[in-house]
Design a protein that fits this description.
The structure holds two protein chains of two kinds. By secondary structure, chain A is an alpha+beta fold. Chain A has two domains: 25-195, Cysteine proteinases (Cathepsin B, Chain A, Alpha-Beta Complex), CATH 3.90.70.10; 240-323, Serine Threonine Protein Phosphatase 5, Tetratricopeptide repeat (Alpha Horseshoe), CATH 1.25.40.10. Helices cover 55% and strands 14% of the residues of chain A. Chain A is elongated, with a radius of gyration of 26 Å. Chain B is mainly α. Chain B has a domain at 35-119. Chain B has helices at residues 2-25, 35-56, 58-66, 71-76, 83-94, 100-119. In chain B, helix 2 (35-56) crosses helix 5 (83-94). Classes of the chains: A alpha+beta, B mainly alpha.
């Protein structure tokens, strides 16, 4: 009898220890927040319930959740593609799965900007509320016995503490927020939204947007108009962004529109007078326009300030000097 | 014989095409700082900030001191980490699960970077 009680207590201890290990801090905070705000004010940041009905569903075959989930978000972003067409691009038979980096690259190939979200559950749900299905990676197993899985978040129900996924063979797969968080956490909180060029993510991280767009732009044979749209949308949101401004100006330069490039570089260094790369690129463009004296002034300034790109600055100044016959 | 001259023609054309490509690409070597360079620089900066933020934490500093490493020294040397080392450290920090053991692992990594430096295996922290 006493042995049984001991065993029982031991079991409870193990359960408590286990549940301590697998806490879901973000879900807890979010739900507490939600229930408190619901009582206090009707204007909560997150709605109680969201369900993106129009997001398509592709029941996955075998281990091919990667192509299925990617096709789901691509179609939701108005790219007409089916999982079968994506298998060759993202599915690695030897691993019976798809690599995250390949998923991001494949979306770019279809003309979409793949943006990785911050590891924040509330931000993820905000994207869904803004109408964006979110591609997520989960580890359905344990950290030392992983079962990797891709799914798409298409809704949530905060009063019931549930999240809705397109997952595997189930169209509306409802699981508790806490369980989702644990599986997502074990996949390093990996979450991605796809943006059409000109579309902005509903979060405030300018650096993340710039990273996503520059990766999108780096793809060979990319249509210049699509890149320009993406930069310009970013500049509307963050008008003083040095990096986006430089990227836009560099694109004009690459397209041979030197006059627009000069104006853009000048605007950047008017705002940030010590930005060496701005001076350097302005100098190079002025050199191409044959305005050598002005070019030299800015090239010297860049060399003087120095920094990470000193090598570029030195080469620019040398080119200007040789054009001047020095 | 006919095949051979055909092959030669193909090879010559291919070579010519390759050379003309090289020629066409020369002007693109102009020394503007490219958007890729700016993006890479920003990525390094984000990772550097992550490592610095990590070393700024009181619990991390306590663990470093316990291993005989001056926290201020470690912080100062973040600047001399290479892009690769930054990437691996910041990735470890990003994916750090809660718990003492994991924290110890990353700190171990930092200490190893420093020890290898002293031993002359690597040159991450030239100031040591």
């Amino acid at each position: 009898m006493g042995k049984n009680i001991l065993r029982c207590v031991g079991g409870i201890m193990v359960m408590l220890w286990l549940s301590g290990c697998v806490s879901a801090p973000q879900s807890d905070a979010l739900l507490t927040h939600f229930s408190q705000r619901l009582g206090a004010s009707p204007s909560v940041a997150l709605s109680a319930r969201i369900q993106l009905e129009q997001v398509p569903f592709f029941p996955q075959q075998d281990f091919q959740c990667g192509p299925a989930a990617l096709a789901t978000v691509l179609q939701a972003s108005k790219v007409d593609i089916h999982p079968e067409a994506l298998v060759a691009q993202v599915f690695v038979p030897a691993r019976q799965g798809s690599l995250q980096i390949e998923m991001l690259a494949a979306a770019r190939r279809y003309g979409r900007i793949s943006q990785i979200l911050a590891p924040d559950l509330e931000k993820l749900l905000e994207q869904v509320q803004a109408g964006k299905p979110v591609l997520v990676m989960q580890n359905l197993g344990l950290s030392w016995y992983p079962q990797w899985h891709y799914a798409v978040v298409v809704g949530f129900d905060l009063p019931r503490a549930e999240i809705v996924l397109r997952s595997g063979l189930v169209r509306d797969y409802r699981i508790s927020l806490a369980l989702f968080e644990r599986t997502w956490q074990r996949a390093e909180h990996w979450a991605v939204v796809l943006l059409a060029p000109g579309e902005l993510p509903s979060d405030e991280r300018e650096d993340a947007y710039f990273q996503s767009v520059s990766a999108f732009a780096a793809l060979a044979n990319r249509d210049g108009r699509a890149i320009a749209l993406a930069y310009e949308a970013g500049l509307q949101r963050w008008p003083t962004s040095t990096n986006l401004g430089m990227a836009r100006a560099n694109l004009w330069y690459a397209q041979g529109d030197y006059d627009s490039a000069v104006l853009a570089y000048e605007a950047i260094i008017a705002r940030v007078p010590d930005y060496a790369a701005g001076h350097n690129n302005l100098a190079q463009t002025l050199l191409d326009l044959g305005r050598l004296d002005e070019a030299k002034k800015h090239a010297e300034r860049a060399v003087l300030i120095g920094g990470s790109f000193s090598e570029n600055f030195r080469i620019t100044l040398d080119a200007i000097d040789s054009a001047l016959g020095l | 014989m006919k095949m051979n001259s055909y092959l030669r023609k193909v090879v010559t054309t291919a070579l010519l095409a390759a050379f003309s490509l090289v020629c066409i690409q020369m002007p693109a070597m102009a020394d503007i700082v490219s958007t890729e360079q700016i993006a890479t620089e920003q990525r390094n900066q984000i990772q550097r900030d992550a490592v610095r933020g990590f070393l700024d934490r009181a619990d991390v500093q306590a663990q470093l001191e316990a291993r005989g490493v001056d926290a201020a020294d470690a912080l100062q040397r973040v600047d001399s980490l290479t892009a690769g080392e930054l990437a691996s450290l910041s990735e470890q920090i990003d994916t750090l699960p809660a718990g003492e053991g994991a924290l110890g692992f990353v700190i171990g990594l930092i200490v190893i970077f420093m020890l290898l430096d002293i031993a002359g295996v690597t040159d991450v922290f030239p100031a040591i």
